[in-house]
Amino acid sequence: MTLEVLVIAAVRVAGSLPVLRWPLAGGLLAIVVDLSDLLLRDVLDLGGIPDYQAFDKWIDQVYLGAFLFVALGWSGLERRVAVALYLYRLVGFAAFELTGERAMLLVFPNVFELWFLVVAAFHRFRPAFRWRPSVAVVTLVPLVALKELQEWALHGARLFDGISSLEAIDLVLRWLAGGS
Questions:
Q1: Cβ–Cβ < 8 Å for 21, 15
Q2: Which of 67, 94, 142, 170 is most deeply packed, by most CB within 10 A?
Q3: Residue 162 has pLDDT above 90, yes or no
Q4: 111-125 vs 52-71: helix crossing angle, rounded to 10
């Protein structure tokens, strides 16, 4: 285990904890911190990360576990859906670990994190809202589609495997500035 792995793991764990106090803001922060490890990996020179995909999926379990802990305090349909989605992704994580195939992450997309954020937003802004099965389904359909698109880009097409986070930031900034 390298110092780089330890530093990034510490950042990821610390970024997961605020969700326990502030579900929506902490959840958003945890996801931003999840993405930050790519930038940290590119700027730190502390020994590297031998198997980034495996490391990332293992350390994801920290914020997903924190999300689950909060979701277990919910009730009714929102809790049942959260637990089912968490367990579904956990099966995908295990399948990925056993096979090493990133395609497992497409079969078992992490819809749990998006569901968590939607429910946390409803708790924050519409606390009296009560989920019905039809509303949950209508909510889950675009969440699944969005997450499948993201998982396909990351793990199916591997669109970002050949580019560093610094190069990606540069491309986005040039695009925003109207350049090519």
A1: no
A2: 67
A3: no
A4: 30
Say if CB 154 and CB 38 are below 8 A apart. Answer: no
Q: What is the pLDDT of residues 124-134, one digit of tens each?
A: 999 999 999 99
Contact between residue 97 and residue 54 where contact means Cβ atoms under 8 Å apart: yes
Domain count within the chain:
1
Q: What is the pLDDT of residues 45-86, one digit of tens each?
A: 889 889 888 899 999 999 999 999 999 999 999 999 999 999
Residue 117 exposure: Cα atoms within 13 Å on the Cβ side: 14
Tokens of 134: 């039809």
Residue 33 has a CB neighbour count (10 Å cut-off) of 19
Tokens of 104: 């497992």
What distance in Å separates the CA atoms of residue 108 and residue 93, rounded to the nearest whole number? 8
